[in-house]
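User: I'm preparing a small set of examples for a lab meeting where we compare how different chains pack in three dimensions. I only have the primary sequence for this one, and I'd like the structure in token form so I can line it up with the others. Please keep the answer compact; I'll paste it straight into my notes.
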Amino acid sequence: MSEFEAYCASAEAYAQRHPTQRRGQAFFNLLNRIRPELAHVVWGTGRDPFGDDGTLPDFLAFVQSRMDGAT
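Assistant: Understood. Below is the structure token output for the 71-residue chain.
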């Protein structure tokens, strides 16, 4: 399992454990816990899903590119 696949599985579980958070919030919050340097790059940009779940696909594509070694 790749780092990104593990992150997605963990983020889904995190979202289930935190039902008061929207999915985008949960995915961002977990990333901030496990890879704060990567969350910092996304924070406040058009890819930030914390305030808008609609950006989650772009967020995930970006996170995958960084976790899979592309910069």
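A couple of notes for your slides: Residues 47 and 59 are 5 Å apart (CA to CA). The helical segments are 3-17, 23-34, 36-42, 56-67.

User: Perfect, thanks.
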